[in-house]
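Help needed: design a sequence for this.
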């Protein structure tokens, strides 16, 4: 009989997700857009924001599954996962300092080298360097962490544990409400210190509070082929998304003399084809390369990643461009502060939906809740297209939050069911195609699209890309129909 875990067990198993999401919830929607806007021309900020995210997330896509795979094989007496979580967090503290130091290089004498050589300023180069290194260290811990639920939680309790995980992922939207005013005041070092403290505290709770059974015998299968497969997986996905961005650019050139309505319609269609197509091709073929010979027997897992990426690409990108939308379309003066307030209000719906979703996932089925999540979040994004004031933005955000909370709990429970238990770290690391790929697709393609249409009419670009993200929510439901799961 499976041991019934206490709520304290579920919390300790999942508490490091709190630290990781304090970091991502602070850096991605608040700190990074602020820093990029300091370092680049205003009319190019969406493009450069997308570029910085693409570079960092491509690194994450490679490192996370490798960390998961090597943690699967770790024979440390501390267990398979905790040594990686400890090492990754210590490195995080070092690399966060590089990100924090980037504004010190504004107007640096080194611009004489970086601008003509790389086409970017020294400050932007330092920021990119810090983000890339931070992605390496963070995903070293992240890749191993994903194996804790499959390792430590019986299958019939994973819905509850995934619900706790979802709360840990979503709770930071309340905690980072203090970050917005600090960013608007330029207090970058205080923000960096806040993130570092959250990572350190939750790492210590995990390392000291979770008990792992050490792996008795190290697997004998060679890892060289699997490493190269992961490299190929990353290359395939990045190349496919870059080709998709070219498609969007070609569509823009082909309609350069058309009426504005025609250009918008073609842009939305091209953007949707580019994002959905790159998700399908990048994930489907990339995952087959990453998984290897077992792929024909893991098609449900692959389609689960497609579903997850479509949803996360949409919700993450709406969140990522929220600060610029509030500043450029609604003309909010303290956009970083309002962004964190918006996220906190949305969390009022996120958290109960996540907890309820985790409970229901064990009883009514994972797939039904994931499908409902896509429908609800898509409807909220459609409403966002007509939001001309803060109250309407809040209402649409709360609807998106309700769908996202259900998704975070039920979707991850579905993934842990589909991943082979003996290689949960590697498979759930491969699922980072969805986590990292979401930003590569949503921001990497959406950022240049936003700048292109904003140049035609101020604020138009955000409406175009939000329409594409709404369609991605609905398409994620179609991808789910290809998943065959017992629950």
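Sure. Designed sequence:
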């Amino acid at each position: 009989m499976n041991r019934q875990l206490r709520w304290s067990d579920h919390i300790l198993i999942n508490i490091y997700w709190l630290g990781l999401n304090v970091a991502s919830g602070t850096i991605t929607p608040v700190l990074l857009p602020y820093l990029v806007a300091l370092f680049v021309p205003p009319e190019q900020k969406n493009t450069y924001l997308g570029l910085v995210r693409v570079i960092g997330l491509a690194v994450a896509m490679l490192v996370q599954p490798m960390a998961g795979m090597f943690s699967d094989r770790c024979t440390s007496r501390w267990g398979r996962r905790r040594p990686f979580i400890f090492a990754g967090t210590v490195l995080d503290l070092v690399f966060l300092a590089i990100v924090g130091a980037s504004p010190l290089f504004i107007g640096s004498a080194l611009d004489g080298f970086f601008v003509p050589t790389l086409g970017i300023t020294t400050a932007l180069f330092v920021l990119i360097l810090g983000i890339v290194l931070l992605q390496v260290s963070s995903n070293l811990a992240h890749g191993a962490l994903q194996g804790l639920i499959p390792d430590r939680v019986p299958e019939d309790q994973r819905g509850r544990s995934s619900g706790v995980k979802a709360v840990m992922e979503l709770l930071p939207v309340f905690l980072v409400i203090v970050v917005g005013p600090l960013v608007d005041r330029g207090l970058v070092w205080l923000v960096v210190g806040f993130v570092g403290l959250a990572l350190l505290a939750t790492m210590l709770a995990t390392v000291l509070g979770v008990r792992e059974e050490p792996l008795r015998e190290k697997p004998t299968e060679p890892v060289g082929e699997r490493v190269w497969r992961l490299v190929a997986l990353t290359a395939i996905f990045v190349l496919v998304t870059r080709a998709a961005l070219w498609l969007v650019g070609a569509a823009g050139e082909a309609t350069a003399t058309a009426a504005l309505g025609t250009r918008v319609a073609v842009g939305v269609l091209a953007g949707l084809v580019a994002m959905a197509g790159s998700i399908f091709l990048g994930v489907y073929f990339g995952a087959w390369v990453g998984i290897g010979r077992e792929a024909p027997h893991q098609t449900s897992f692959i389609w689960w990643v497609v579903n997850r990426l479509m949803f996360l690409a949409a919700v993450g990108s709406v969140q990522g461009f929220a600060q610029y939308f509030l500043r450029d379309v609604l003309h909010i003066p303290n956009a970083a502060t309002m962004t964190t307030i918006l996220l906190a209000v949305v969390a009022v719906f996120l958290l109960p939906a996540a907890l309820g979703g985790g409970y229901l996932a064990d009883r009514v089925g994972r797939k039904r809740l994931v499908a409902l999540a896509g429908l609800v979040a898509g409807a909220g994004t459609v409403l966002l297209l007509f939001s001309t004031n803060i109250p309407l933005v809040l209402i649409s955000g709360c609807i998106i939050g309700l769908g996202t909370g259900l998704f975070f709990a039920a979707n991850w429970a579905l993934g842990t069911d589909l991943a082979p238990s003996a290689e949960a770290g590697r498979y759930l690391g491969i699922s980072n195609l969805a986590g990292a790929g979401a930003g590569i697709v949503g921001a990497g393609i959406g950022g240049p699209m936003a700048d292109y249409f904003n140049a035609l009419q101020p604020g138009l670009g955000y409406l175009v890309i939000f329409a594409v993200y709404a369609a991605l929510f609905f398409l994620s439901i179609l991808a789910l129909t290809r998943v065959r799961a017992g629950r």
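Residues 7-480 form a domain with the Growth Hormone; Chain: A; fold (CATH 1.20.1250.20).
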